[in-house]
Structure formats: structure tokens, C-alpha cells
């Protein structure tokens, strides 16, 4: 993977990272707009204090708001239409997404729908380049990095898959405070951390990787060397929460430059058809994906940053954290693989020629009972 010092780099999101950043920088909201649509899931933002902090900041700066709290995991285009209609009715001029990847991605998509009233779930994918109203992102899990990426992953029931909305929607501001993750259950902490780790891996081993993007990947791997030990030991103290949040943010900045690669493309049908959480769907495929590389030079470099001696050692760590048991047939694996072979955009991010057999082997070796 020969890359020179030439690169393109863009990170237009203003990041505030640290304790109590929302209330310490509340004046930022008033500079963005005067009426906000707050987009969340049903419960967690209210339970972890993030929603209260945002509302307090808005009230203290005179910004009006309306709440849409019906975002499901893997948000559908139907939900995005519903939320954006509320935003249009209320005449909002910016959107605040609070939560994990689902509410943040939904907030970005709604910001596009609100700005472009002619857009709906049936024509969004053929619409060409669109602008959005501004988005503020408040992550409450350490995983997706959506607070610093341009991507909005939505569920299309018509196409029976998750896919990128196809628009570039960088949040204008990200408020990143790990205190909102303190009470996350262990399983969600693992699933989301694995998602962040797969972003680092797929962004690093990518045809679009550059000297600049690799800086974020390598720093992220160093942090994960620490985070994996804590996850295995189930020692989720505030220092771990802060470091895994930082690793997730670094991974987001990296994939904003590079995109993701095979495990993400292969993981989407496992989430859509088998109900596997997104992070686990990518993570369960990661070791076999790494084994499929003919040239492992950069993988060895990655392992050194992680402080891991071999691919087998990494496999052992992931096996301790991930236990995926799903019913899947060889026929289904073949169908999912064939469908991904049509996604040329995803395939070109992989630095080797991708053959159908490679995809089938990654799925089979990862998921079929041995």
C-alpha cells in the first residue's frame, strides 16, 4: 500500500471535548440558530443527563426547541420523514442529535429533508448533492464517531438494507462529554467500542488512507491497547470512558477521510436480516477480514501500535469480548456476498482485488459452526 505525503483533508466540525462542555459553551447554540429540533431515542438521552444539559443550555441562551424522541435503532427513512415534518411545521433552523449513532445519523438526515422540502423517502437516493440546515451532535456512546463524520446511515425497507444517505452532512459542532456514557451497560459498551475499533481498522487498511489519516488511526490504536485490557477486565472506570470516547472520535475523523471497507459492507445484512447490533456485525468479521490480506505489512504495524504480539492474540481478545451465535445458511452467505460485489464504491476502498470467494470465506469462517 504505497502512499505518499499527498493528501486531501477536511474536518469542518468544531469539536468541544471534555467535562461539562455543553454548559461551559452554551453560547454556541445561540450563534447557530434560534429554534432547534432535538432528535433522540426514547429513553437514554433523558436518563444519562445529556438531554437535560442541552435543554438547560437552550433555555439559558433563549433558543426555542421542539423534541422528536422516536428514533429507533437503525433509523428508517419513515422515521426521518416523520421527524423532519415536525421540524418543518415548527420552522426550525437547526437540528440537535443526542445519542448513539442512530439519533445522530437521523438528525443529519432530517436536516437535509428540512432544508429540501421536495425530498422524501422515495427520491432521496437519486437527488444529487443537497445542502442541510446546521447540525449539532452530542454523542452518548463511544462508537460510531458520527459526531465528526459526513455520513448518515439509514435503513431503507424498500431495499432491505442499511445504507449511507449519500449526502455530506458534517455536524457544525460536536459536544463530546464522556460522562454521558458512565452508566452504559457492559454489552452496549462493548458493541459500540468494537464499532469504533473497526472504524480504525478499516480506515487504516484503506486505499484512501494517507499520511494524515493514519495519524488518527495510529493514535486510536494506541488508546485501544489500553481500552481492550479494561474491556476484558470489565473495569469501566472514568479514565476508560474518556479514552474510549477519544478513540471513537479519532476513528470518526479518520473514516471521514477514508470511508469504511469490507466488514461494514458485509455487516449491514447481518444487522438488517439477523438483528445483530452494528458493532458486533463488523467485529465478528474483522479477524477473518484481516487474515484475507495477502500483504500484512500494515497490519503488523497496526498490531505494534495496539501493543499486541500477533493476529492470533488480537483474535483471542475479540473472542473474549464477542460471542455471536446466529443462524445463517451457506445460501444466505452467498446472497449477501453477491450483493456486496455490486457495491463498487465499498469494494474500491479495499487495497486488494475483491473476489466473491474472499467474501464468502470471511463470512463462512466467521459465522458458520465449525
UniProtKB/TrEMBL annotation:
Enzyme Commission number, as recorded: 1.1.1.77
Family: Belongs to the iron-containing alcohol dehydrogenase family.
Residue ranges annotated for the Fe-containing alcohol dehydrogenase-like C-terminal domain, each copy included: 189-364
Assigned keywords, A-Z: NAD, Oxidoreductase
GO molecular function: alcohol dehydrogenase (NAD+) activity; lactaldehyde reductase activity; metal ion binding
PROSITE patterns (UniProt xref): ADH_IRON_1
Protein name (record): Lactaldehyde reductase
Occurrences of domain Alcohol dehydrogenase iron-type/glycerol dehydrogenase GldA (ranges): 12-177
Gene designation per UniProt: fucO
Keyword NAD listed: yes
Catalytic class of the enzyme: oxidoreductase
Source domain of life: Bacteria
UniProt-listed Gene3D superfamilies: 3.40.50.1970, Dehydroquinate synthase-like - alpha domain
Amino acid at each position: 500500500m504505497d502512499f505518499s505525503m499527498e493528501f486531501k483533508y477536511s474536518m469542518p466540525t468544531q469539536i468541544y471535548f471534555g467535562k461539562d462542555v455543553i454548559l461551559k459553551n452554551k453560547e454556541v447554540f445561540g450563534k447557530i440558530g434560534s429554534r432547534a429540533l432535538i432528535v433522540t431515542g426514547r429513553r437514554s438521552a433523558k436518563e444519562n443527563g445529556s438531554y437535560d444539559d442541552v435543554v438547560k443550555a437552550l433555555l439559558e441562551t433563549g433558543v426555542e426547541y421542539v423534541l422528536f424522541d422516536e428514533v429507533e435503532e437503525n433509523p428508517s427513512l419513515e422515521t426521518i420523514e416523520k421527524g423532519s415534518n415536525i421540524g418543518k411545521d415548527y420552522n426550525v433552523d437547526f437540528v440537535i442529535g443526542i445519542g448513539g449513532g442512530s439519533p445522530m445519523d437521523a438528525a443529519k438526515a432530517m436536516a437535509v429533508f428540512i432544508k429540501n422540502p421536495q425530498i422524501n423517502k422515495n427520491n432521496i437516493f437519486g437527488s444529487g448533492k443537497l445542502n442541510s440546515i446546521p447540525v449539532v451532535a452530542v454523542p452518548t456512546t463511544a462508537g460510531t464517531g458520527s459526531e465528526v463524520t459526513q455520513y448518515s446511515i439509514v435503513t431503507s425497507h424498500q431495499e432491505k438494507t442499511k445504507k449511507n444517505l449519500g449526502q455530506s452532512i458534517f455536524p457544525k459542532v460536536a459536544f463530546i462529554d464522556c460522562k454521558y456514557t458512565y452508566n452504559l451497560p457492559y454489552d452496549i459498551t462493548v458493541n459500540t467500542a468494537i464499532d469504533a475499533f473497526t472504524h480504525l481498522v478499516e480506515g487504516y487498511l484503506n486505499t484512501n488512507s494517507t499520511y494524515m489519516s493514519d495519524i488518527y488511526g495510529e493514535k486510536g490504536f494506541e488508546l485501544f491497547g489500553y481500552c481492550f485490557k479494561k474491556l476484558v477486565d470489565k473495569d469501566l472506570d472514568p479514565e476508560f470512558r474518556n479514552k474510549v470516547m477519544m478513540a471513537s472520535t479519532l476513528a470518526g475523523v479518520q473514516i471521514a477521510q477514508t470511508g469504511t471497507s469490507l466488514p461494514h459492507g458485509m455487516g449491514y445484512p447481518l444487522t438488517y436480516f439477523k438483528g445483530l447490533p452494528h458493532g458486533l456485525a463488523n467485529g465478528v468479521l474483522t479477524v477473518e477480514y484481516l487474515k484475507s490480506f495477502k500483504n500484512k505489512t500494515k497490519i503488523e504495524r497496526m498490531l505494534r501500535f495496539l501493543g499486541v504480539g500477533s493476529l492470533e492474540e488480537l483474535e483471542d481478545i475479540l473472542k473474549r469480548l464477542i460471542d455471536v451465535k446466529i443462524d445463517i445458511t451457506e445460501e444466505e452467505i452467498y446472497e449477501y456476498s453477491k450483493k456486496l460485489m455490486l457495491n463498487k464504491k465499498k469494494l474500491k476502498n479495499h487495497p486488494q482485488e475483491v473476489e466473491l470467494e474472499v467474501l464468502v470465506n470471511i463470512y463462512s469462517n466467521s459465522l458458520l459452526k465449525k
